[in-house]
Amino acid sequence: MIRVLVVDDQFLIRAGLVGLLDAAPGFEVVGEAGDGEQAVRLAAETRPDVVLMDIRMPGVNGIEATERILAEAAERPPRVLVLTTFDLDEYVYGALRAGASGFLLKDSGPERLLAAVTAVDGGDALFAPSVTRRLVEAFARQQAPADTAPPPDLDVLTSREVEVLRLTARGLSNLEIADRLFISEATVKTHLNRTMTKLDLGSRAQAVVLAYETGLVTPGG
């Protein structure tokens, strides 16, 4: 069972998501929250596998809630799947930078939603990479806030790890990267996991953001 926490400040949307997940085999809704503050508290209490996180909420928004949930996770942190109305939403970029595993449009169909939850729970930390790449490209030109630490140095990576990171940021799947570099898909995953460990990254989405912020990949390049 995939244990899911549903967070949305609009009751009807939240109720619809809860009903969909409850009716689908293999999913269990462990809680529902109407704001970010409640989401942080329930995440600590219920320890879900996946958090469906509304991004635009009054008070504590989805970005801050994502940061706090991941920072306060006692053991395996949950995967955060951001829900948004707009595919080019600066709030989503902030959530990806904070460690969210990916994002999904609220008008996505039931099958796509369930597939997305399953994908991020299984470790596929960047759902719909081509769309996410477009989002990152749109906002990577923005400078990080002054109180944000500079991105880590990529010199700690091997040349192969750098190449895998570059192709990941360009929106290629693990299988496509494997075909491009003439290596196995498992080897791609190993390189990416080592990269994330060396750079202290929590998700594949963060790796993509970092690739743009360090200039490894340039918007439109």
TL;DR of this structure?
The protein has about 220 residues and is an alpha/beta fold. It has helices at about 10-25, 35-45, 60-70, 90-100, 110-120, 130-140, 160-170, 175-180, 185-200, 205-215; strands spanning about 1-5, 25-35, 50-55, 80-85, 100-105.
The shape, in one word, is globular
Largest sheet: 5 strands, parallel
Count of the domains: 2
Helix count from the secondary structure assignment: 10
CATH class term of the largest domain: Alpha Beta
| Number of β-strand runs | 5
Give unreliable regions as ranges.
none
Radius of gyration computed on alpha carbons = 17 Å
Strand order of the largest sheet: 2-1-3-4-5
So, CATH architecture of the largest domain? 3-Layer(aba) Sandwich
Mean pLDDT: 85
- Percentage of residues in strands: 5-15%
Explain how this protein is built.
This protein is an alpha/beta fold and 221 residues long. It has helices spanning 11-23, 36-46, 62-72, 90-98, 110-121, 129-139, 159-169, 174-181, 185-198, 204-213; strands at 2-7, 27-33, 50-54, 79-84, 102-105. The protein has 2 domains: 2-126, Rossmann fold (3-Layer(aba) Sandwich); 159-214, Arc Repressor Mutant, subunit A (Orthogonal Bundle). The protein contains 10 helices and 5 strands, in the order βαβαβαβαβαααααα. A 5-stranded parallel beta sheet has the order 2-1-3-4-5, with helices on both faces.
Write the layout of secondary structure elements.
Layout: E1 2-7, H1 11-23, E2 27-33, H2 36-46, E3 50-54, H3 62-72, E4 79-84, H4 90-98, E5 102-105, H5 110-121, H6 129-139, H7 159-169, H8 174-181, H9 185-198, H10 204-213
Parallel strand pairs: 1-2, 1-3, 3-4, 4-5
Helix pairs in contact: 2-3, 3-4, 4-10, 6-10, 7-9, 7-10, 8-9
